[in-house]
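Exercise 3.2. Students should predict the tertiary structure of the chain below and write it as structure tokens, then compare their answer with the key that follows.

Predict this chain's 3D structure.
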Amino acid sequence: MDVSEVTPEPAGLLYSPPPADMPIPNRLNIVLVVLAFSTSVGLLWLGSRAEQWYAVLGVGILFSFVLLTNYALLHEAVHGNLHSNSKANFWLGVLTGILFPIPYSMIRVTHQGHHLRNRTDFEMFDLYYPTDSRFIRYVQWYGILCGLFWPWIPIGAILFAVCPGVLRTRIFRQARSSRHLLGDIQAKEIRAIRWELLLIVAFFVAAFYVLELRWLNTLILYACFSLNWSTRQYVGHAFTCRDVIEGAWNLRTNRVMSWLLLHGEYDLNHHRRPDVPWFYLPRLTRPGEARPGYFLQYWRQWLGPRPASEPAPESLRQIPLTVHQEPVISNQ
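Answer key:
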């Protein structure tokens, strides 16, 4: 494929089928899902067998990297790229969502909102306006870098599933980011979210009973994942141009990390072509295009938010969120 022919074509691509010459690697993805899930469960068991704090921490570090791959697989399912069969894609998405944990039907909608509003005011965490409270912006920014982003996701899922009326509260309506992420969720997604949340609860109840997991040890493992996942969530977007499509980086990293992230460092290529499965993202890199180092870009974030110097782009609201039809779990 000629990379010069790869151009930003946002409309209709959020759930569009992949190019004919870039088919979804179904078998490889299934193997990765099984490996990630079984290894994660095994590490949860091993972490609960460890007695010394440093042993638990060591297992937690391994656990955090395995769940990074699990999340990358979940991300593929969100775009309909985990399996070419829509039902298989759905259930693999549900399975990978269990370990995060987040209902697949919830992240499926909120992540599409990210593609619609990337680098708009609703997804601007690394910059601030003169009218913003710098204290609040710094707390938000360093909260993300210090691992406090992840805990709000399962908490938010429970709150939203139990009481979707939270969308109508004053605090939620005044929140610049969350009201647009969760505001995309429709009634049918709420039903699916509830069923999937019950499935997640059932899994962990069974896991604690069968594997005799310890609460403290399990929380330490997830704390490791929380830090590892949260601190890198904005590395591919921080300090990029204010453009919904082009506001991302293709970063350079070592091969091991690239495969753990399933080429997630190619975030710009992904935003240009979200229809392309992870396996082919490196092919889309344009000749001569800047690729900052992953770790250098990561440490740049710790210098703190910067004043906004560009106008905000408009959200791509005209893109339908549900072009690619997925089965709803409540209808199974």
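Discussion points: The CA atoms of residues 155 and 172 lie 14 Å apart. Residues 1-13, 318-332 have pLDDT under 50 and may be disordered.
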